[in-house]
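Contributing: when you submit paired examples, paste them exactly as shown. First protein:
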Amino acid sequence: MAEQSLGGRILDGYGDLIAQHIDDAPEGVRQALSVAFNVERAKVTILPELKVHPFSRDAASIALRSVTDALNDFGSSVVTSIFLPSEMFLSMGVHPVTAEALSGFVTAAHAETGFVGEAEGMGVPETYCSFHKVLMGLATSGVLPAPRLLASCSVPCDANNLSFKALSHVWGTPHVYVDVPYSTADDAAAVSYVADQLRSLAHAAERAYGTDLDEEELRRHVANSQETLASLRRSLPLRRGHFMRSDMGNEMQLALATHLWLGTDDTLRMARHMERDLADAQDFDGVSIVWGHIPPFFLRSIAEPTSQSRDAQIIATDMLYDQVGPDEPRYDADHPFEAMAERLLDDCFNGPATRRADRLCSLARQTGADGAVVFVHWGCKETAGAAQLMRRQLESQGFPTLVLDGDGCDRGNCMEGQMSTRFSAFLEMLRARREAA
């Protein structure tokens, strides 16, 4: 394991202090977290990371804003699942926030352990998804006040089906669940079925927040979403042979920006910056890998080998390109609910695991990747069950693949030394393979 930095030791102390006061001062803990995130947001705005591309700086700002806006005014927030479309909430001035966003930033503050313990003490199984355990701990401890609405969908996480029901009971908050069939948008009946549920969700949000949904504003947000995804589609081949200048934290922030804030002017601007930045990016002759699922950005020895490195980089992730198909959308912004339903049905995380495998293979081909990593996040049964299928499919198309078991949220649940050894050996194998070609 890499030697911990002074900053890491300071954050460990901060996390320990948070854990000590979860039960006796939950409001103080919430304020401490809010202050920390707002300070980081100001830092990103005033002193942005200059080593990364401008689009990565955009993503950092958007991801921090999504969390700070929610914590600063939780009464105007909706707790939702990461794959559920957010345009209707954004159009109403409601801040969407997810387990991945809240828990990811709690982890960045080295404060996740106390909330994991809080959730497990309330009966949440140890084998449960760590992102959801942190969210449950935030709720059951009283650190997070009750929002006015909970909204989730069946894509792709089994924890969504359980966490939101439990949170609705804990908070006494209404919960709307969107059931997404194992189908695609080629099925008109499936589109209609999901679109009608999204309309019902919009009505529930109007009741919860006392605000009418402006249909014109919704169409504008959906148009932004479609142009953002078109821009991402155009940017994908520009990654081939180019230096990403990124790290695992950037990849997490990009995923949050293109889900929670998809449809905003800021995210559209970020996508357009990505096209420009990658078109002008420096050449790269190191090892490039495609990454499947959540990256463990907080593990220094895992993150460092691909952190703004000339030797190895993550060239694309399925969490960024999950909604980006090869074709133009069937429904335009004049049919906003159908357009959102289409995107949800065609997301590569919906349906059989072969769709995720196909997307990873497509990403690897289009970017000229040397190999792939499928990260099996603790508690994610879908990824655990599909990992070997994805590995076989990738390797059958010539992309060596490492299935790496770990935790994308809870540092106390990672065998970092073993993970680091395996990851480093995999990168070295890809280097040797590249040199021999």
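Second protein:
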Amino acid sequence: METGRIAHPRSGATSGIGRAVARNLARQGAEVVLHGRDRARGEALVKEIAAEGGTARFVAADLTDAEDTLRLAAEAGPVDILVNNAGLFEFTPTALTDAASFDRHIAVNTRAPFLLAGALAPGMAERGHGSIVIVGSSAARLPAPVGAAYGASKAGAEVLTRYWATEFGPAGVRVNTVSPGPVVTEGSKAMLGENIGLMDGSNARGKAGTPEEIAEVVSFLAGPASSYVNGAVLFADGGERSALPS
């Protein structure tokens, strides 16, 4: 890896894609700064990473709160890689999505990455290198009958990718998004229940993704192997052909 320090803000970094990303990057030698809301689960993951020979510390913060998000950036300190993996999804019809729900989606999925990049990317630029990876969603390009607020918030994150690549690229900071299709996580299991098998039929591979597969893509975008990749949205979806939540 190019770096030893990674800020990894995510709502629930102790589960799903966030947990897989943290473990994978730690195995590659990165000192990982974990974010989440549940301190007990966060500290448990710190111990798990340490048992695997890695180094991590945990910072609790609420990404729906702008001040708390900026505190997270301050406590993370100077970083060389920023993984924005915040994930809030409430799949409801538009008429049943109130203003508070819409604002929560924007706050976690779009505003938090914006604030964290604004706080941490300038330091990367001063040092002449860095990588920002956003974990997006296929919902940004494959509409479904529900979840417009989620799709809009993830589409906004993709737009930020292109703007930041232009803004920070000349200073040596790359910005890319990985866009997963349906992935089997605790969240998708809770949402789909006994219908979880529907995800397998949503892509050309005939099998839903795993958090570990997405983590490998994040590591590629974060590291030197992708040095000529900037401002890109990389689809990690098995050839998705129908809209399902990821």
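If you have annotations for the second protein, write them as plain sentences, like these:
The domain at 5-236 is CATH 3.40.50.720 (Rossmann fold).
Confidence is low (pLDDT under 50) at residues 1-12.
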